[in-house]
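[Meeting: bench + compute handoff]

Bench side (C.D.) handed over the final construct sequence. Compute side (W.E.) agreed to return the predicted structure before the next meeting so the bench team could plan truncations. Sequence as handed over:
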Amino acid sequence: MVDVDRCQECGIPTQTVESHEWLNSGVIVRKDDSSLRMAFVECENLDPLFDGIVQIIGVPIEHIVIDCERKGNRDYCNPTIPQEVKDLVRKGDLPLVSIIDAMTLTASTNGLGRFELKDESLGEFITVISYDAHSVPITLGDIAGGCEAVMGDEYSRVTYKELSPHEYEMTAMPSGFPANLEGRLERKEYHLREGDIELERCSTCGGPLAFSRFKWDLDMGTIKSDSTGRRVGIVYPPVLDPIFGELEKELGETIAPVVLEAQRRFTKTGFYSVNEIKDVERFRNQLALLGMGNLREFKMDPKGLHLSLDNACMHLMVVGMIQGLYEIAFDKESSVEWELSEEGDLHADVTPLFTQFLSAS
């Protein structure tokens, strides 16, 4: 059983509250580094989204997702592990398992699944059993990237096999090359501004009180909303966001419309409910609670939908979701236009197709 301290009033793990800060701009940052933006992302749609992209373009992308996540997680973890600790591990004076235990505890607390070390040989391979991974390819990338951060070598050889539903054996091995820090992913900078969001706080720990309606199952490594039943995980958006950019480089074509279409299709399977966006103030607070940004404008009627979101992250998933919900609400096919400013402000407009046809005629 995973044993961590929790707030006795709201039940949030103490580590979560002590490590993160919720700003009034709809943004979550690490307290020890305010340039590190974090977010609670609904993660049950990640693998279906990747599968949907594959169905549309007809090309496998798993290796791209793994490789991009590997590089991103390496660059995220690398500065957090003291050099003296890395040196001790590489010399064999400090067991690698001590680092793995710390990483697995953080993964469980962040809702990213539970891991158990199966076998490892210093500098040769590491094999873990993954339970309830929030995303299989992203988890593979995280394991490989974590190894690179500690060992200093490139761990780009990864394998996995399914042992049972939601249980995988995952192995990462070094490629024989040093980790290429020259090609590291540039950290995406967010132009954070003051906002006007005031989340109700727990009087004991100071964290958002709304998280008392989320269930942290630390033994399974999951976080779920009591109201929707959906799973969320604490992730680092500047690692996830570049995946789609890497897809564009690899495939040589614009990927944004494909991501939007895949997310729209997934939304229409019934994963999300229209009721979640009917109450605008509730929708605004929910986005801020998850760290997705500050909702400035939201209007929806049969003629269309308009959204303005300051400090947006994971914007393609947000746009695809609202387009799908609009089509569910009014049973209409639609098109969407969107724009993301350099400051991170997202503007999106969903328009029913029959309106466009009438306007053209």
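W.E. noted at the follow-up: The chain has two domains: 41-190+225-252, 254-360. C.D. will use this when planning the next construct.
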